[in-house]
Specification:
Elements lengths: L3 H7 L6 H10 L28 H12 L8 H14 L9 H5 L7 H14 L3 H14 L5 H7 L6 H11 L1 H10 L4 H13 L2 H10 L6 H11 L1 H5 L7 H18 L15 H11 L7 H16 L11 H13 L15 H19 L8 E6 L10 E6 L2 E2 H5 L8 H4 L12 E7 L4 H4 L1 E9 L2 E9 L12 E4 H13 L6 H15 L2 H4 L3 E8 L7 E8 L5 E8 L6 H14 L8
Antiparallel strand pairs: 1-2, 2-3, 4-5, 5-6, 6-7, 8-9, 9-10
Helix pairs in contact: 4-6, 6-7, 7-9, 8-9, 9-10, 10-13, 11-12, 13-15, 15-16, 15-17, 16-18, 17-18, 17-19, 24-26
């Protein structure tokens, strides 16, 4: 039997994770993601004397432990020391968070730090050490590292750390790896096979055949992995029906990327968005004027006018040119007749009504070009609906996604109709947006609005700032007369409204004008609008204090009955004057 001090030397050395990834790669003869995963399990430490870690203190601790090793002349010895120091941390740092902790660590000698990163990635035996190498390669990696990274990404536990590095070095490779990890072989299998084979014709065909209901991030990854903008360059040489199919698929992917289901619009992470929108606009004339195609063109016009897509670096005149091409198609005689959806299911009829409203907005409404402040109400295509926003544009840039990015701007019922954004001599703090998960989780965006002589000032910004922070928000000043005129114009504009929404506004205006209607029942107005699940129903939300001290909510549905919105609103106000709303039910 060996002596105790000798047993460590006799313990078999773990295999490098890269060698495990190679075994997985060679085992996948029957297709990607064979279940024969040869990687060791992620180690789990037992109970520790330290119950939690502070992010900033842990980052400082890692910098102190690892920074001297980044300049070590022998990368192999330095890699061994990285393993030892990481293993000694108590409690251990989760390997998935190491990227955030190591990011931005000062590097004095890039060549030596890159050499250490490569040793860790290619020979590292522990997840934490390999993830440190990956984090370093994010800023120091080169094209020669990509094949190693693609192989290492075969280990499921390292997919997302590897994807992050590939996004910096070879974004299509990162997108392809992330799609492999979706676990939907029926959806993505044929496209992945075509991409692996390098068959551009097959890639285009499989891309067009993909289902249209994928999520925003998946839509972005599909566009990146397939090289969408390069495929679009081939449209002029394709048969018209094939070119039209690719153009329609492009419009659908761009539309999905503008969804706020993932809080920050995926379109902001799609670097090729300007070129994709330009190609979509150039090819829009190939599309027949169906209801789907009306919706795609109108959605693109909305986003290029007031949406997050505006925030990309377009260069002089490019975005305006794409908008001009899209509106020119929409003005063609054959596009002036919108399919009405009569006789179809309610969702189709509702979508046709949205197309007619939105078409009138984007083609006929006065837009006031060059205005310092503009408020644009945005209603999303009901095929993939979202919150109705009162988008705030300053110098043509949408403010909420630019400075907040955790949720949409508030509705016109919250920002416009109660006079929330009106400027007075008394400063007023206004919440412009709130994260979908609530303010208590990911915050909200606040600004203080005040009048200062012949100017209106927005200052005193408040918002949730994630680790790493964002740039400071500037004080904004507007000409008071122009500001007042824009707020009045946006408040009076009802071109986007449908009857149920107008009934809600009339009810809310009536309650603000007669506060006694609710005060007599000890009830207060929360908001008035329409039901998300059925926009033809007016929905009134009321609050009151329960006997147990908790705030209770009344959700009062007023169904569409064919009568004018004015009559429905008057009837609702009469009922509130005669009957306690706490007896209405929800």
């Amino acid at each position: 039997m060996s002596a105790p001090e000798e047993r460590g030397a006799l313990t078999p050395r773990p295999a490098p994770l890269y060698a495990c990834a190679l075994r997985v790669q060679h085992a996948e003869s029957e297709g990607p993601w064979c279940q024969a995963d040869a990687a060791p399990p992620v180690p789990r430490r037992g109970p520790s004397n330290r119950v939690s870690r502070d992010f900033t203190r842990t980052k400082d601790e890692l910098t102190r432990l690892l920074r001297p090793l980044l300049a070590a002349p022998d990368p192999v010895e330095a890699a061994e020391e990285v393993h030892r120091r990481l293993d000694a941390l108590d409690p251990p740092v989760r390997h998935r968070t190491l990227r955030l902790l190591v990011a931005g660590m000062p590097v004095e000698n890039e060549e030596r730090a890159r050499a250490l990163a490569r040793v860790l990635v290619r020979t590292g035996t522990g997840y934490r050490a390999v993830c440190v190498g990956l984090a370093l390669l994010t800023g120091l990696g080169e094209s020669q590292d990509v094949p190693y990274l693609r192989t290492l990404g075969r280990l499921r536990t390292l997919v997302y750390p590897v994807v992050h590095v590939l996004d910096a070095l070879d974004r299509p490779a990162g997108a392809l790896l992330e799609l492999r990890n979706q676990g939907e072989p029926v959806t993505f299998g044929p496209l992945l096979v075509a991409l692996d084979a390098g068959d551009r014709t097959a890639v285009r065909e499989r891309l067009v055949a993909l289902p249209g209901g994928v999520g925003p991030e998946v839509a972005r990854r599909v566009a990146e992995a397939s090289g969408l903008v390069d495929l679009l360059a081939e449209v002029p040489g394709l048969p018209p029906h094939e070119g039209a199919a690719l153009i329609a698929r492009t419009g659908r992917l761009l539309f999905l990327m503008t969804s706020l289901r993932d809080y920050r619009p995926a379109i902001l992470s799609y670097r090729d968005a300007p070129r994709a929108y330009e190609a979509f606009a150039r090819g829009a004339g190939l599309l027949p004027p169906t209801l789907d195609h009306h919706a795609l063109l109108l959605s693109a016009v909305q986003e290029l006018s007031t949406g997050p897509a505006v925030l990309h670096d377009w260069g002089p005149g490019r975005r305006e040119a794409a908008l001009s091409e899209l509106t020119a198609v929409l003005r063609r005689p054959e596009w002036c007749v919108v399919p009405d959806g009569e006789g179809d299911e309610p969702g189709v009829r509702w979508r046709a009504a949205w197309v007619r409203r939105t078409r009138a907005q984007v083609l006929e409404a006065e837009q006031g070009p060059g205005a310092r402040l503009r408020i644009a109400v945005h209603e999303r295509d009901p095929d993939e609906p979202g919150a109705i926003e009162a988008r705030v544009l300053v110098d043509g840039r949408p403010l909420v996604p630019d400075y907040f990015g955790q949720g949409p701007a508030h509705s016109p019922e919250e920002l416009l109709f109660p006079g929330t954004l009106r400027a007075t001599d008394e400063p007023r703090e206004v919440q412009l947006a709130e994260a979908y998960c609530t303010e208590g989780c990911c915050g909200a965006l606040y600004v203080t609005v005040r009048r200062d002589g012949d100017q209106v000032v927005w200052s005193g910004w408040r918002r949730h700032v994630p680790p790493g922070g964002k740039r400071e928000l500037p004080e904004l000043r507007f000409d008071a007369a122009a500001y007042d005129a824009e707020i009045a114009r946006a408040s009076d504009d009802e071109s986007w409204m449908w009857p149920a929404r107008r009934a809600g506004r009339l009810i809310a205006d009536g309650l603000r004008g007669r506060p006694d209607l609710l005060a007599r029942w000890n009830v207060r107005l929360d908001w008035a609008g329409t039901a998300f699940s059925n926009p033809e129903d007016t929905l009134i939300s009321l609050f009151y204090d329960g006997e147990d001290g908790y705030v209770r909510q009344i959700r009062w549905h007023i169904p569409e009955d064919g009568t004018p919105p004015e009559d429905r609103a008057a009837a609702a106000l009469r009922r509130l004057g005669e009957e306690d709303p706490r007896a209405y039910g929800s």
